[in-house]
């Protein structure tokens, strides 16, 4: 309880207290600032795109790691957790070196008039990188616990592989996909270290909420930083509540 209060409850209360310390009017002025709203809306849009990508990639990779045996499987399974262990700033630097204007990929895309780094695609790549493990690790236990007799019964009755997947296997995977996607979305909303190196931080174009908060602190405006933080924090609370609800229903079944 002491750990929970000191490291979780008090910091959260501090953010809400700081945001409303000067009253409702300054708080409303802070969150209604056009740059703040653009930063939050851009963050939501790119986090949704990154989450959709992770849903497809995570589901496929989780399926392959559980259902197939191949050389390097254990190595691939251990590399899935690399974004958790790697400092996010290092991840941002890796993306910068891989996709920057001086890299082979960056030079190739620049030839077609399409730049990746310091534009929205680089932010999406950074968000996908840091949230990569969530869907995979949420899907894998469900596939391991799945009763294969239902799948075999579907094949015995003449169902095709695609029909069996969508009618028998996918419904069992859906709770894990949903909870993993929500956790990935929540994590993408708050990403800073990987994004700040590749975003360009152009107000209204590539400035996301976490970098905006950092800029407000640097500009000696803790009220504005706390107000935007409250928006993201409240949204994260709602997402975590939804994840808990999904997991509780799954256990109830």
Summarize the structure.
The complex is composed of two ATP-binding proteins (CysA), two transmembrane proteins (CysT and CysW) and a solute-binding protein (CysP). Belongs to the binding-protein-dependent transport system permease family. CysTW subfamily. With 253 residues, the protein is an all-alpha fold.
Mind explaining what this structure looks like?
- This protein is 79% helix and 0% strand.
- It contains 13 helices and no strands.
- The radius of gyration is 21 Å and the shape is globular.
**Tally of separate helices:** 13
Mean pLDDT: 83
Order of helices and strands: HHHHHHHHHHHHH
Q: What gap, in angstroms, lies between the N and C termini?
A: 31 Å
Structural class: mainly alpha
Largest sheet: none
Subcellular location: Cell membrane; Membrane
InterPro entries: CysT_permease (IPR011865), MetI-like (IPR000515), MetI-like_sf (IPR035906), ModB_ABC (IPR011867), Sulph_transpt2 (IPR005667)
Subunit structure: The complex is composed of two ATP-binding proteins (CysA), two transmembrane proteins (CysT and CysW) and a solute-binding protein (CysP).
Keywords: Cell membrane, Membrane, Molybdenum, Sulfate transport, Transmembrane, Transmembrane helix, Transport
């Amino acid at each position: 309880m002491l750990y929970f209060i000191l490291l979780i409850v008090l910091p959260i209360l501090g953010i809400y207290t700081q945001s409303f310390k000067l009253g409702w009017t300054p708080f409303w002025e802070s969150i209604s600032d056009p740059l703040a709203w653009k930063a939050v809306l851009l963050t939501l849009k790119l986090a949704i795109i990154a989450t959709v990508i992770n849903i497809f990639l995570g589901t496929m990779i989780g399926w392959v790691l559980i259902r197939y045996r191949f050389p390097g499987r254990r190595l691939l399974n251990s590399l899935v957790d690399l974004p958790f262990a790697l400092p996010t700033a290092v991840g941002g630097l890796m993306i910068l070196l891989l996709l920057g204007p001086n890299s082979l990929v960056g030079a190739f895309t620049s030839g077609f008039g399409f730049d990746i780094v310091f534009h929205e695609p680089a932010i999406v790549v950074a968000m996908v990188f840091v949230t990569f493990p969530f869907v995979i690790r949420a899907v894998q236990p469900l596939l391991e616990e799945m009763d294969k007799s239902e799948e075999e019964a579907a094949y015995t009755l003449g169902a095709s592989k695609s029909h069996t997947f969508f009618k028998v296997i996918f419904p069992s995977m859906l709770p894990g996909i949903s909870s993993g996607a929500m956790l990935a979305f929540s994590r993408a909303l708050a990403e800073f270290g990987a994004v700040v190196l590749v975003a360009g931080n152009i107000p209204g174009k590539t400035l996301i909420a976490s970098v905006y908060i950092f800029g407000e602190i640097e500009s000696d405006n803790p009220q504005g930083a706390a107000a935007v933080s409250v928006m993201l924090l409240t949204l994260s609370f709602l997402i975590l509540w939804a994840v808990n609800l999904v997991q509780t229903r799954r256990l109830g079944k």
